Amino acid sequence: MRGSFWRDYPALLPGVRVVAPDLPGHGDRAGEDFTWEGALATVEAALPDGPVVLAGHSLGGYVAMAYAAAHPHRLDGLGLIGATGVPTGAGAAVYRGFARLVPRLGEERVARRVNALMRRLAGGRDVSHVTDEGAGYAAMPAAWAAVMSECGPGLLGGLDIPVLLLNGGLDQMRLGVRAYAAACPGARVVTVPRATHFLPLTHPEACARELRRLLDRALQTYRR
């Protein structure tokens, strides 16, 4: 998903600087090879000075948790949206399915299917700023293979910052949320009823409200 997925959030979060870079292989960087190291370097390069809350959706959420685990003192808050699946055991089927889509169907076909799904779920909202051509999905196998090997609830174990675990009630990625909450007992767990994996797009007000709460918690900690 491209960084412009968050296009509407500066207006929804007045007074907040929103930085949303494209990860390797996504958005304006479609065609680049996706690497886990490159994704983490993208986050590092984008972080401003001062209090920082790092939030990500789906793949971006898994990259965010890995960055937080590697640099726990660099952040003041962490938000994981649609990113609490456990990529081991039975839950790994979801990740393997994502990783197999492009080789099985081809980039253009995957793009058409995913873009059509987003338009349908958006219920009339403009989604032209988030839909990608086929090249934008070429990174999917490498990206989700990296998630399966690099991520899991244990990454949250050493964090001492406010954490938000936000999911749609209809999202399969929420199925491991209890394991993540157990690894990070202070985390705020929120499920938006009837929302899908595309929660930030279909329910932007609810998503922004929870991000604002996370920001407020992070600022309280930062000012101590």
- Compute the number of strand runs: 4
- Percent range of helical residues: 40-55%
Shape: globular
Distance between the termini: 36 Å
Summarize the biggest pleated sheet: 4 strands, parallel
Question: What's the SSE pattern?
Answer: HHEHEHHHEHEHH
Summing up helix and strand content along with how strands pair, one would put the structural category as: alpha/beta
Unreliable spans are none
Going by CATH, what is the homologous superfamily of one domain?
A: Alpha/Beta hydrolase fold, catalytic domain
Q: What is the assembly state of the chains in this entry?
A: single chain
**CATH fold name of one domain:** Rossmann fold
At the first level of CATH, the class of one domain is: Alpha Beta
Into which percentage range does the β-strand content fall? 5-15%
Highlighted features:
Rossmann fold, single chain, alpha/beta, 4-stranded parallel β-sheet, 43% helix, 224 residues, 9 helices
What this model shows, in words?
Helices cover 43% and strands 9% of the residues. It has helices at residues 9-12, 36-46, 59-70, 92-105, 107-121, 140-150, 177-183, 199-202, 204-222, and strands spanning 53-57, 77-81, 163-168, 188-192. The protein has a 4-stranded parallel β-sheet with strand order 1-2-3-4, with helices on both faces. The chain starts with 8 loop residues before the first helix and ends with a helix.
What's the quick description here?
The chain is α/β, with parallel strands linked by helices and 224 residues long. The protein has helices at 9-12, 36-46, 59-70, 92-105, 107-121, 140-150, 177-183, 199-202, 204-222; strands at 53-57, 77-81, 163-168, 188-192. A 4-stranded parallel β-sheet has the order 1-2-3-4, sandwiched between helices.
